[in-house]
Amino acid sequence: MNKQRMPAVVVRETGKKGDWNELSIEEVPLPQVKQDEVIVQVHACSVNRADLLQRRGLYPPPLGASSIMGLDFAGTITEVGSNVEGWEPWAKVFGITAGGGYGRYVAVPAAHLVPIPANLSFVDAAAAAEVFFTAFLNIFLEAMIESGETLLIHGGGSGVGTAAIQLARAAAVRVIVTAGSEDKLQRCLELGAAHGINYKEQDFAAEVLELTEGRGVDVILDWIGASYLEKHLRILKTRGRLVLIGLMGGTRTEIQLPVVLTKRLRIIGSVLRSQSDKEKAALVRAFTDWVLPLLESGKVRPVVDRVFPIDKVEEAHQYMLAGEHFGKLVLTW
Ligand SMILES: NC(=O)c1ccc[n+]([C@@H]2O[C@H](COP(=O)([O-])OP(=O)(O)OC[C@H]3O[C@@H](n4cnc5c(N)ncnc54)[C@H](OP(=O)(O)O)[C@@H]3O)[C@@H](O)[C@H]2O)c1
């Protein structure tokens, strides 16, 4: 390999937004280390739902981020910036990034690194990164859920869902999930969910009210958005929190505002990727204190559905699109 270049998954854009652009592995410039950064040789990264949008030109990277896809990585440090203390070459690390995970090497601020615990492989660590960060940030830091409260998670069998069920359960939160098949619901119960609702066959809002004796839930982790909003406001308790992290069910809707007022609800929008370096550094510190020990002890575990070699990235994206997966899809070099 030319020392100044590296292989990476590259999107061949047609220029038309929404097209299913082709992916190919090509030689691109190696990222250059800045003084507060390290270079990580990536051994594994995961596929996230957002990647499917990015390849179609519908989710561009934030200003200053790598244009290479990939929101997480697990690998070994190969180079350390001049201001970095506490990290050495060969250390095994994982974490989140606003872009670049699908490259063989990625530049990451040292303050965003998490050490890979001895009980996790590179594949496990890649599977944990984006989704455990997302679940932790939104359930605990944004919604400030407390033990004994009830949480509704849609798509419990997703990457984010499988992480959220386990983290909530570890904090003695009662979890209700939805999923689109009986098999996925069963597996969510095994991960720690108390109740499962098949959203394709049942009215989830009516089921939630029945399961909670009409009281509703304290927190909803929502990436459906518009099509569920009216129901969500209806099934939230007084002072309930809705954390909106995606829009798979549409972007526009109309609601009656009195319910927000009278129940003193909070609707919180949250995107991990566009947080500033400083915000991410604070999040990484909190994650290292709270979530890393749970991963280390095996109390929570990333759920890996399937591992694909990086040259099968198209297959991995098609598999996610088909929606049969439970947990994470991981790409390896
Ligand atoms: N804002 C952020 O910072 C952030 C960060 C990470 C992820 N996200 C978002 O979180 C979501 C999950 O990401 P992922 O990578 O874990 O995706 P994923 O594994 O592909 O999962 C998508 C899930 O959505 C569920 N779903 C689809 N339509 C549904 C509906 N109408 N009702 C209930 N569930 C439905 C699916 O359930 P079934 O398969 O059971 O049908 C599936 O489990 C995505 O929207 C992603 O963009 C946001």
Automatic annotation (TrEMBL):
UniProt keyword list: NADP, Oxidoreductase
GO terms for MF: NADPH binding; quinone binding; quinone reductase (NADPH) activity
Record carries keyword Transcription: no
Enoyl reductase (ER) domain location: 18-331
CDD domains for this protein: p53_inducible_oxidoreductase
Domain of life: Bacteria
InterPro entries associated with the record: ADH-like_C, ADH-like_N, ER, GroES-like_sf, NAD(P)-bd_dom_sf, Quinone_OxRdtase_PIG3
SUPFAM superfamilies named in the record: GroES-like, NAD(P)-binding Rossmann-fold domains
One Pfam family per UniProt: ADH_zinc_N
This protein's name: Alcohol dehydrogenase, zinc-binding domain protein
Organism: Syntrophobacter fumaroxidans (strain DSM 10017 / MPOB)
